[in-house]
Amino acid sequence: MGTRETEIAAILERHSGQEGALLPVLHDIQAAFGHIDDAAKRQVAHALNLSRAEVHGVASFYHDFRDTPADKPVLRLCRAEACQSRGSEKLAADAEGMAAGRVTIEPVYCLGLCSVGPNAMIGKEVHARLDAARVSELIAGMAA
């Protein structure tokens, strides 16, 4: 078993016996490797006694999961209604220009901080009360 398979096996072991372990396992694999490839889906399916189609269906349904590594840093900008009412649409358009191809700007629909929007997420870190200046700082820090 290779290093990657061993790490996935350790993740699966941490969730052994847990009811509804598929999503937590997929989140941990995504966090560890930045994506969930077909080999990981096969290993998860086997360990959780699910079909590969079931694992792929869940992994492809949620926007959090990638099947290939991101080629650039990713800033996920909330585009849900509460953040839209606070200017996230204009902020998203501005962010695309600021990113200039150095950072990927992806929409996400609700980070759960509606009262302090607009919000964005970089990795597992959430940033609230964003304006154009703060988004520019975040992008500059990511692109460095």
Integer count of domains: 2
Look at the helices and sheets and give the structural class: alpha+beta
CATH superfamily of the largest domain: Glutaredoxin
State the end-to-end CA separation.
Answer: 36 Å
Shape, per Cα inertia axes: elongated
CATH topology of the largest domain: Glutaredoxin
Question: Helical percent range?
Answer: 40-55%
- Uncertain residue ranges: none
Name of the top-level CATH class of the largest domain: Alpha Beta
Description:
The chain has helices at 3-14, 22-33, 38-48, 52-61, 81-84, 88-99, 132-143; strands spanning 74-78, 104-108, 120-122, 125-127. With 144 residues, the protein is of the alpha+beta class. It folds into two domains: 3-61, no CATH class; 74-143, Glutaredoxin. It has a four-stranded mixed β-sheet, with helices on one face.
Key structural traits:
144 residues; alpha+beta; Glutaredoxin; four-stranded mixed sheet; 4 strands; elongated
Structure in a nutshell:
By secondary structure, this protein is α+β, with helices and mostly antiparallel strands.
Topology:
Elements: H1 3-14, H2 22-33, H3 38-48, H4 52-61, E1 74-78, H5 81-84, H6 88-99, E2 104-108, E3 120-122, E4 125-127, H7 132-143
Parallel strand pairs: 1-2
Antiparallel strand pairs: 1-3, 3-4
Helix pairs in contact: 1-3, 3-4, 6-7
